[in-house]
């Protein structure tokens, strides 16, 4: 039933719009009605007005068991952002002695755009020495970096990013390559369980570990979901939310529109050089439909704008918003 025309709605008088959005995400209409002694019809009437005005969908925390479990899962991180920028870099596969163009650009973007959140979306390290792939006889396989060298180098790279983005939250969703460390220890030396240092998060104390970062109940940032050339579309189609992933290194934005509005499937690409030594052991110099760069998410009044990509167009060169820069 609609709110009576011409009758003042207490939901407009008690709460400002940003507070209303925050409470609706956390509590839902029924709990807000009880808390503020407002007719639940008034809550829903104002919700519909905000959705139409801001172009967003306000979902209560209890809509669907799976959604509720995801939002409250200990391996997820909640990010409520009304206005601000999130920088998402993925698949850096940091290698000692190599600083990629994408990494240098990412540091500069942290300084220039002052993001509220910085996400290194998995596969920060490569860990070839504990990989399931056999060493190539054509390469100096015995010179692959040690686990200790990779962790030390990655820690230095992430520290550079952290210093360039002071005041931001720093999030680290686990990637499948990152997981190699604990998988190896758990399978080969389970007696080391609970020792400090056996968990990857022990080596990156300034970064919040998770499997997924959830933004405003409508966007999920995690390392991987579906595979294949249509992964970005299938990710958002199956998730029902905007999905920002890495893993496939393809770097693309796919829009999907339906009765719920428009959402996006985003692949952030790789922050490494696609033909770098990290990948030589298994891609065998085949042509790669990979692109180097990262993603910038802009949120205005709680609404995610069209996701933007920063593309490494050549050695030391990036493209963004129709311009090309050297870094």
Give a brief description.
With 327 residues, the protein is α/β, with parallel strands linked by helices. It folds into two domains: 10-54; 65-326, Metallo-dependent phosphatases (Purple Acid Phosphatase, chain A, domain 2). The chain has helices spanning 10-14, 17-27, 29-36, 40-54, 65-72, 101-113, 147-164, 180-188, 231-239, 280-283; strands at residues 76-79, 84-89, 117-120, 169-173, 208-210, 212-215, 219-222, 242-245, 252-258, 261-267, 293-300, 303-304, 308-314, 317-320, 323-326.
What's the alpha carbon Rg, rounded to whole Å? 22 Å
Biggest β-sheet description: 9 strands, mixed
Query: Which structural class do the helices and strands define?
Result: alpha/beta
Tally of separate domains: 2
**In the CATH hierarchy, what is the class of the largest domain?**
Alpha Beta
CATH architecture of the largest domain, please?
4-Layer Sandwich
Question: CATH superfamily assignment of the largest domain?
Answer: Metallo-dependent phosphatases
Q: What value does the average pLDDT take?
A: 89
Beta strands, count: 15
Order of helices and strands: HHHHHEEHEHEHEEEHEEEHEEEEE
The shape, in one word, is globular
């Amino acid at each position: 039933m609609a709110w009576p025309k011409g009758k003042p709605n207490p939901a407009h008088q008690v709460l400002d719009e940003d507070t209303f959005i925050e409470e609706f995400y956390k509590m839902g209409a029924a709990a807000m009605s009880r808390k503020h002694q407002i007719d639940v019809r008034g809550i829903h009437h104002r919700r519909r007005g905000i959705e139409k005005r801001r172009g967003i969908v306000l979902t209560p925390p209890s809509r669907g068991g799976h959604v509720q479990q995801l939002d409250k899962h200990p391996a997820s991180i909640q990010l409520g952002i009304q206005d601000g920028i999130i920088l998402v870099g993925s698949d850096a596969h940091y290698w000692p002695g190599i600083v990629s163009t994408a990494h240098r650009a990412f540091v500069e973007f942290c300084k220039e755009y002052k993001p509220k959140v910085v996400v290194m979306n998995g596969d920060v390290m490569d860990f070839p020495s504990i990989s399931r792939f056999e060493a190539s006889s054509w390469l100096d396989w015995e010179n692959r970096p040690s686990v200790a060298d990779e962790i030390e180098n990655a820690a230095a790279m992430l520290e550079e990013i952290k210093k360039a983005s002071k005041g931001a939250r720093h999030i680290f969703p686990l990637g499948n390559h990152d997981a190699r460390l604990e998988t190896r220890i758990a399978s080969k030396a389970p007696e080391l369980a609970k020792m400090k240092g056996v968990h990857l998060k022990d080596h990156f104390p300034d970064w919040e570990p998770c499997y997924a970062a959830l933004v405003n109940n409508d966007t999920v940032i995690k390392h991987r979901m579906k595979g294949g050339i249509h992964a970005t579309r299938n990710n958002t189609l199956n998730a029902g939310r905007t999905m920002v992933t890495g893993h496939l290194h393809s770097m693309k934005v796919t829009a999907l529109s339906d009765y719920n509005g428009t959402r996006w499937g985003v692949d952030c690409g790789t922050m490494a050089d696609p033909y770098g030594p990290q990948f030589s052991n298994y891609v065998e110099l085949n042509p790669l439909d990979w692109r180097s760069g990262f993603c910038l998410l802009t949120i205005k009044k709680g609404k995610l704008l069209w996701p933007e990509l920063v593309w490494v167009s050549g050695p030391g060169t990036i493209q963004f918003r129709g311009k090309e820069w050297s870094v």
